[in-house]
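TL;DR need structure tokens for one chain.
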Amino acid sequence: MMKTPILFLLLILLSLLVLPGAALAEGLDLSALVPAGDGTAAGRIVQLVALLTVLSVAPGLLVMVTSFTRFVVALSFLRSGLGLQSTPANLILISLSLFMTFYVMAPTFERAWDGGVKPLVENQMSESEAFAKIVEPFRDFMRAQVRDKDLKLFEDLARDSFKTKEFAEGEIRVLVPAFMISELRRGFEIGFLIVLPFLVIDMIVSTLTMSMGMMMLPPTVIALPVKILFFVLIDGWNLLIGSLVRSYV
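>> reply
TL;DR here they are.
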């Protein structure tokens, strides 16, 4: 039974040895891999490397230039306000934030695809032109959401640190960090409004347990089901998700 694989391998090696030498010596023609009129092989290799680079940093790009930051911060505050350590799980919160991000960013993604990615794939424009067209929708989205105060902060820092006197309107190196801290600020503002009613419930339950002399009973034992019941009765998920999405309208 063991001889069959060995004989098979020997046959393969023998077939390779009897191949014509010219066939083995023939080099790989990269230009044959590229259809006529589709640019050079080197250009295709550059596009492939750029695509792999973008895919490797895609999670970071998603956080930096989309609405993901605000969503995940607000949902994290919700879980902390409820007093739940692992429910909903991180996977659920991140997945919900991700799909909400796709919902909000759908028009931006479509503009980037139609204006830059699709023409690049069809070789209707160069890489530099496509990059400008892809970045433009995200620049417009970030500029509509960023605070002028945060934008001015990074412009001043760039002038002081890098001695740069002039900036192009909506320059990425200034706009992206300003947009991120603006999103963090709004996320914390929404988080405060989420946590506030739960904090009131904690204070009321703690006061009641203290006044009734139940010193040994942790207030969280009573407050936790009360907060969950309160959140369910007001249809909290519907209110929260709707408010988060409308905050970008």
